[in-house]
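Changelog entry

Holo records now carry the ligand SMILES as an explicit input line rather than a separate metadata file. Below, a converted record for nicotinamide-adenine-dinucleotide, shown in the new format.
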Amino acid sequence: MKTTIIVTGAAGFIGSHTCDRLLVEGHRVIGVDDLSSGRAANLEDASRDPGFAFEGFDLRAPGRFSALVEAARPAAIIHLAGLVSVQASIRDPRLNFSLNLELTHLVAEAAREQAVPRVVFASSAAIYGDFPHLPLREDIAPQPLTPYGAAKAASEQLLLGHARTYGFVARCQRYFNVFGPRQDPASPYSGVIAIFLDRMQAARSPVIYGDGGQTRDFVAVQDVARANVLAATRPGLASGVVNICSGRSTRLNDLAAALAAATGFGGPVTHAGAKPGDIRHSAGDPGRAREQLGFACEWSLADALAALAHSTRPAVAKS
Ligand SMILES: NC(=O)c1ccc[n+]([C@@H]2O[C@H](COP(=O)([O-])OP(=O)(O)OC[C@H]3O[C@@H](n4cnc5c(N)ncnc54)[C@H](O)[C@@H]3O)[C@@H](O)[C@H]2O)c1
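Structure line, unchanged by the conversion:
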């Protein structure tokens, strides 16, 4: 059934792909964003669709979000707005609290007041901390190492508690390392793939901190968007928490080699000292998302990297 869905953080990296996917599936979408880290250009495709409307305001503006939800009566809210940088959360825990926990409460309250049936929340693998036994499963007790991870863990509990008390469905999606088009390589906190790709396309060596033997579970943003749509629209879902991951473990050295192959970069990779606090290995168990959402990644890492390199190829080839 086609429905109206509100997406917060719509102009961001994951939000814009989520809007695109909802529109392709025929839903009406209202995107909310204050453009603090997102970009209007990310919504160029969505804005051409008559089923899309954009509301540009800070979610904390008193009464604005609640009034929007009251007027739109959405079937679901997909809550993606937040402070995405772990480092920024360490530097400014107050801002982290405001954007990664208070906003969640505001969304939960709007869902309660306006009887929204479902809320989907952008959680993170950061809540697992540096848990040593892989793959990471959802029933591990959260041990976040940063204000960012702590706010994501608290947000999950807040939403699940509200959902139980007030009778809506909360779906918490623990994204692993998301990558793909529209991820901003200019941000020092951006994903490693966006930064490596940007450097290789400028014929500059990527820098690996540490020996490159550390592993990550990379998941293509197109797959994450599809998982968000499933969580918002799949009939009969109860509240729950799932990993949104590929289940594949990729060494950073192998990632650099795959990106070099995708871009034609022939230069060396530079190594620098390991970053303090850097997690050594991370990989998620995708089993529960498969059971509950019917979700599995469709993009292989190689295909997604090739498509990304193609879509971001510089207009003039650099010598
Ligand atoms: N990118 C990843 O690898 C990753 C991994 C795990 C979890 N997440 C989570 O997914 C969500 C989306 O991440 P992203 O990578 O797309 O980040 P992003 O910064 O591109 O998107 C966040 C969006 O929220 C908007 N926003 C922030 N504060 C707002 C406010 N007060 N009012 C209205 N809009 C506001 C920003 O302008 C931005 O467009 C975040 O909650 C993030 O913590 C991302």
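Spot-checked after migration. The first strand starts at residue 4 and ends at 8. Residues 4-178+220-245+288-293 form a domain with the Rossmann fold fold (CATH 3.40.50.720).
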